[in-house]
């Protein structure tokens, strides 16, 4: 029978993107400047994320995969102003319930020794072993959804599409993360690891975009730098007042493709959206951009890399357990203002 833990975990980790998101965000939270993601069979057999971050303190080994354990919060009050991606302590515990999960980790002073930690389904620490390793953490997820057979079959059926989605998400992390080297590999069947894409530890998002989409893409892009001003909604003002803060306006930074009139596609029709540099889907905003391009009679759908910097009171990330949807309190006003500015 399926346990409550498995069912709840299936709501935190809904697909390959959730796995990649949680592991990559943990690596970024750990201060990594190099992140390598490895897939086997497009992620069906293995998704592994290796970082050169701070590693995990031995005192924490027994806790990290327990439900609701997080090292990132000192008090509940901090929740609203947290800068790290994680804070719920649900990801690792969920991965244990849904797959075979192990970690290899070393803090600087332990190198060249590292510790391999195998976790049980419940999240309890199982076997531990000393192995050779570098500073940082490697988290390995084998056989995702093996304990939710219907979900597993669904994933196997749609693996091509799911793998495409997870690559797009990794593109977004790689482009937005300045100073972090990304490398993504995949091994399909008996073939060796193939590097799918990589970035250098670039200083600018522009250089990252060139690494991911090719230098040619850059010449088709124009910078996006807008200040969007509008009357904040009651919800936003209430949240700000509760936190005793001033509201500021929204700043939009990024790159969009130069409108190409008539036929001809010059840029990949990729659209990446971020709120405070956190990748997220913003379908209403995407629609607004596409409508503006259409109104100019532009045939192709634009390349968009758009990072909205805004007050943390202006949105809610906690609307879904997987934290991927963001609720903007002022979506309508923002879209109006965006259309005008574009
Ligand atoms: P959260 O990120 O919400 O704290 P997770 O379940 O994702 O919860 O991770 C649990 C804990 O495991 C983290 O709080 C952190 O202490 C530790 N951890 C996970 N991944 C890493 C990593 N790559 N490097 C260092 N510590 C990590
Ligand atoms: Mg996390």
From TrEMBL:
Family: Belongs to the DNA mismatch repair MutL/HexB family.
Lineage, broadest ranks: Eukaryota, Fungi, Dikarya, Ascomycota, Pezizomycotina
Superkingdom to which the source organism belongs: Eukaryota
Transmembrane segments: none
The protein, known as: DNA mismatch repair protein PMS1
Organism: Penicillium alfredii
Whole sequence portion shown: 9 to 350 of 1026
Domain DNA mismatch repair protein S5: 209-342
């Amino acid at each position: 029978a399926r346990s409550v833990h498995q069912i709840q975990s299936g709501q935190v980790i809904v697909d390959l993107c959730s796995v990649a998101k949680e592991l990559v965000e943990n690596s970024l939270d750990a201060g990594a400047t190099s992140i390598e993601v490895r897939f086997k069979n497009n992620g069906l057999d293995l998704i592994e994320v290796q970082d050169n971050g701070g590693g995990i303190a031995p005192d924490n080994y027994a806790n990290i995969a327990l439900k609701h354990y997080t090292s990132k919060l000192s008090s509940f009050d901090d929740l609203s102003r947290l800068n790290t991606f994680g804070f719920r302590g649900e990801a690792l515990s969920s991965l244990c319930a849904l797959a075979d999960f192990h970690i290899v980790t070393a803090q600087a002073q332990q190198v060249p020794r590292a510790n391999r930690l195998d976790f049980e389904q419940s999240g309890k620490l199982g076997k531990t072993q000393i192995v050779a390793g570098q500073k940082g953490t490697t988290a390995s997820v084998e056989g995702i959804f093996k304990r939710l057979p219907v979900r597993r079959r669904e994933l196997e059926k749609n693996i091509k599409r799911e793998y495409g989605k997870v690559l797009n998400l990794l593109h977004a992390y790689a482009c937005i993360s300045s100073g972090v080297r990304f490398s993504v590999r995949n091994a399909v069947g008996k073939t060796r690891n193939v590097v799918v894409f990589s970035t250098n530890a670039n200083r600018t998002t522009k250089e990252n975009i060139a690494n991911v989409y090719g230098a040619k893409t850059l010449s088709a892009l124009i910078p996006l730098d807008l200040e969007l001003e509008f009357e904040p909604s009651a919800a936003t003002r209430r949240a700000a007042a509760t936190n005793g803060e001033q509201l500021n306006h929204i700043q939009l930074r990024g790159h969009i493709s130069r409108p190409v009139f008539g036929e001809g596609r010059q840029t990949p029709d990729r659209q990446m959206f971020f709120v405070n540099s956190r990748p997220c889907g913003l379908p209403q905003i995407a629609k607004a951009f596409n409508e503006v391009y259409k109104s100019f009679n532009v045939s192709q759908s634009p390349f968009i890399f758009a990072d909205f910097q805004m007050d943390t009171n202006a949105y809610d990330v906690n609307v879904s357990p997987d934290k991927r949807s963001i609720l903007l309190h002022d979506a309508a006003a923002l879209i109006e203002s965006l259309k005008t500015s574009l």
